[in-house]
Specification:
With 181 residues, this protein is mainly α. Helices cover 69% and strands 0% of the residues. The protein starts with a helix and ends with a helix.
């Protein structure tokens, strides 16, 4: 009887003290990709900011961001910095994960525009002017990519807030038409 107890004890002890099985690298890759996609497309901005501050998530993600790069993070006081940071998170992690396709770039860019539109809804001042500025930021990254676009935006932002409603509506319609192409 004692021998049976010793064998059972040794069996349990080997289970308890053995090292965990190795983690499949494919599972880690899939976890990073799923996390990245969820954080970009399905997470409210306030939660994204908390995750970014905590550098949460699977190992191997990059949370580095530089706001709106060379463009103003807050043109005319409209705060687009978090939108730009999430856009950076999307570009950088999709590239690191080897899945930065033309379609994914477009989807990340469209989410960037939606994030800025959501921010405009909470900003003071003209919502229309804020949305037009958001469209300009979006259009620039779509046409030129993030690095060139931000330099061009610094020139384009002058005077937008002072435009009358008719001129603003015309510019907004032109941007909408170009974005549809």
């Amino acid at each position: 009887m004692n021998n049976i107890l010793v064998i059972i004890f040794l069996g349990f002890a080997s289970l308890v003290f053995s090292s965990p099985p190795p983690v499949d690298p494919n599972l880690e890759r899939i976890a990073r990709e799923l996390w990245t996609t969820k954080v970009i497309f399905d997470t409210p901005m306030a939660d994204f900011v908390k995750l970014r501050d905590a550098k949460a998530g699977p190992q191997g993600l990059t949370w580095e961001a530089d706001g709106c790069t060379n463009a103003d993070d807050s043109p005319f006081g409209w705060n687009f910095k978090n939108s730009c940071n999430r856009h950076d998170f999307g570009y950088r992690n999709y590239k690191l994960q080897g899945r930065f396709t033309k379609q994914d770039r477009k989807k990340i860019d469209k989410n960037f525009k939606n994030d800025m539109f959501n921010q405009c809804a909470h900003e003071n001042g003209s919502k229309d002017a804020c949305r037009t500025m958001a469209k300009m930021y979006y259009r620039s990254v779509r046409m030129f990519g993030a690095s060139v676009a931000t330099q061009m935006l610094n020139v384009a932002t002058t005077g937008l807030e002072e435009m009358d409603q008719k001129a603003l509506a015309k510019l907004d319609a032109e941007l909408d038409a170009e974005l549809e192409e």
